[in-house]
Every structure is written in structure tokens, then in C-alpha cells.
Amino acid sequence: MARAMDRCPSYLALEAFVLGGNSSSCASHVAACASCRHRLALMEVQRREFLESVFPSTVRNVQRAAALPRTGRRLRRTASDVRAAHRNR
């Protein structure tokens, strides 16, 4: 039977390792595996891109939506529901 770290860990296992999972077998595997070190480097680039562009944009959009008056959101939804019901007659 193969040991757990005889193969490269999954992306999920690498993500857990990066986020502080104390897996000594994963750490020793990554230290010895150029492929996994490359995967970790790519994951770091993706993380930075997410934090620099996707996350701030998402937060701004959520804040804008939350700032709308609740009645305005409700009225827009109600108007679209009425239009949809009228089309389905």
C-alpha cells in the first residue's frame, strides 16, 4: 500500500498546507518535489491577483448593493416579477 505522500498532494491539500495546515509529510514532499513547488508558486500568483483585483471589486459591489434603500430593491424586484407574470399569461 502506498503512503499518503508518495504521490503529489491535491490542490486542496496544498491549499490547506499553505493556509497553515501542519502536515509534516506534505512539507517534506513539497521540499523534495519541484512540481509541487511550481504549483505552490502558481497558487501564490493567483492568490495575489485575487486579492488585488477580484476581491476589492466584489467588496465594492456588495457595499453598493447594501447601500441601496431596501424599498428600492424591493420595488425593482416586484416590478420585474410583475413583468414576468404578465409575459406568462
Structure characterization notes:
The protein is mostly helical and 89 residues long. 78% of the residues lie in helices and 0% in strands. It has helices at residues 11-18, 24-32, 34-67, 70-87. α1 packs across α3 and α2 crosses α3. The protein is elongated.
The arrangement of helices and strands along the chain is: HHHH
Percent helix among the residues?
over 70%
Oligomer: single chain
Strand elements, count: 0
Number of helices: 4
Give me the secondary-structure category. Answer: mainly alpha
Overall outline: elongated
**For the residues shown, what is the average pLDDT?**
81
Largest sheet, strands/sense/barrel: none
* Straight-line distance between termini: 64 Å
Strand content: under 5%
Query: Uncertain regions: pLDDT < 50 for 5+ in a row?
Result: none
Rg: 23 Å
Give the topology, please.
Layout: H1 11-18, H2 24-32, H3 34-67, H4 70-87
Key terms:
89 residues, mainly alpha, 4 helices
Quick overview of this protein structure:
The chain is 78% helix and 0% strand.
